[in-house]
Amino acid sequence: MTIRVLLADDQQMIRAGLRLVIAAEPDIEVVGEAGDGAAAVAAARRLRPDVTLMDIRMPKLDGIQATTRLSAGTPPPTRVIVLTTFDIDAYVYEALRAGASGFLLKNAPPEDLVHAIRIVSSGAGLLDPAVTRRVIEEFARTPAPLPATPQLATLTAREREVLHLVAHGLSNAEVAARLYVSEATVKTHVARMLTKLGLRDRVQAVVYAYEHGLIRAGG
């Protein structure tokens, strides 16, 4: 299956560069472009790409607001990877809370971008390694965790355990080894956990766990 990608950036040269990188991949194609956030939302709803590469600073509607609008759909028309030259923590938190499934800096190597597109299109989530630690540490420093949601009580003991391990950054294979179960079983637990909590992917699960005080950095 070909991964369909929408490019949303107000700089034409950036979009051209992204298109060149993607054109070299036989399993990924660009299906559309947008030069502002409002156009990105309209294009994503019309074209329903698998992944949208979303710039943060755009006219009419910034990338955070555009991501929020797209994430409100059920199911959302696309998964969003936020791209930015601004290595500023606040943008990371806002993007994740808005529903982004990935975050990468624009100076990341082309192979990292291609890998991110494939990972996010598969339903997983990805953070730029350069900011992952700071994201987790920031959530851990939140003075007053949000109250537990009613959905949390619907998790089984094993699903809650899986949530903790996923929040620590373990892969399905690593969770399987830790719990002495098959990887297929872990995938089932993860899928059920995400469904019960109303989350789309593992990135959202990490955000949920830290914001609700279920896990602390180093814990």
From TrEMBL:
UniProt entry tagged with the keyword Chaperone: no
A GO BP entry: regulation of DNA-templated transcription
Record keyword Mitochondrion present: no
Domain Response regulatory: 4-121
Pfam families: GerE, Response_reg
Residue intervals of the HTH luxR-type domain: 148-213
InterPro entries: CheY-like_superfamily, NreC/VraR/RcsB-like_REC, Sig_transdc_resp-reg_C-effctor, Sig_transdc_resp-reg_receiver, Tscrpt_reg_LuxR_C, WalR-like
Domain of life: Bacteria
GO molecular function: DNA binding
PROSITE patterns: HTH_LUXR_1, HTH_LUXR_2, RESPONSE_REGULATORY
CDD domains, alphabetized: LuxR_C_like, REC_NarL-like
Keywords (A to Z) from UniProt: DNA-binding, Phosphoprotein, Transcription, Transcription regulation
4-aspartylphosphate carried by residues: 55
PANTHER family recorded: TRANSCRIPTIONAL REGULATORY PROTEIN NARL-RELATED, TWO-COMPONENT RESPONSE REGULATOR
Record-given protein name: Response regulator transcription factor
Species of the source: Nonomuraea zeae
Source species taxonomy: Bacteria, Bacillati, Actinomycetota, Actinomycetes, Streptosporangiales
